[in-house]
Task: inverse folding
């Protein structure tokens, strides 16, 4: 189910909380996922870590990476 123009809530929220405002042009989806997982591993443990990683599994990483390419950024952010 779409959320605010993104694939789903998880994708929108991770983009907003982790990547928004940063210079991510040229980063591939795998690198962006690794970065977000690193943030989670720094701050979470136990059950909270498990839930955070499950949340990240629902993220459309390709969509986030495309949003930061030069051509797509104009379309995604107007």
Result:
């Amino acid at each position: 189910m779409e959320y605010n123009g993104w694939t789903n809530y998880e994708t929108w929220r991770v983009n907003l909380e982790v990547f928004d405002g940063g210079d991510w042009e040229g980063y591939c989806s795998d690198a962006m996922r690794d970065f977000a997982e690193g943030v989670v591993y720094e701050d979470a443990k136990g059950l909270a870590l498990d839930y955070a990683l499950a949340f990240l599994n629902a993220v459309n990483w390709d969509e986030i990476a495309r949003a930061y390419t030069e051509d797509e950024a104009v379309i995604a952010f107007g």
Remarks:
- The chain has a mean pLDDT of 90.
- Helices lie at 9-19, 29-43, 46-57, 61-67, 70-77.
- The CA atoms of residues 57 and 67 lie 19 Å apart.
